[in-house]
Amino acid sequence: MVPGTESVTHLMYQLSINLMDDHRNPGYQLTMIGAPERIFDRCSTVLVNGQEQRISSAWRQAFHHAFVKIGGMGERLIGVCDKRLPVSEFPPPEFPFDADQENFPHTDLRFLGMVSTIDPPRSSVPEAVAKCHTAGVKVIMVTGDHPVTAKAVAKGIGIIRDRSETVEDIAARLGVPVSDVNARQDILIWYWLQLIGSEAGIHLF
Question: Which pairing describes strands 43-48 and 109-117: parallel, antiparallel, or unpaired?
Fold first, then answer.
């Protein structure tokens, strides 16, 4: 495989196109990685034991179950998919891919799976959180992790306690969309941002 011909990075995914070093079957290979749910939504097939299968409602349920289960263990997940670009539409070896015009497909891709990683908090974090609670300081976690993963991490270090609720918890309890939850209520609120930190100048991670 030769170096990527084009690479495009968005907030929720990164895409690259490589020219395959295969004289018997030349062509370009598109690969996309990113937030699993965003990647899965762009796919129409899934690779299972070397065979492509159409994504059905059963596959969507299986994906959601695996995503919630692994994310609920505090692991960060990255979705991976690909697509072999047809030679008739993208003739090698010098097709003029344009990262600005994005003249390549973003949907009808093939889902390959998920990669999980874990970046555990520092050992001193639970104690620091406990001291904040004792002092009456409300700790708010600011993270770029998916809410499922962030919730598991927050429970593990004591930010979410027995009587604490996330926005998702409140929405589920009330049976309303997350957007309808009043963020001004005196409750623990999570903000899913690209930064990592906390209130009161205390860096927990």
Answer: parallel
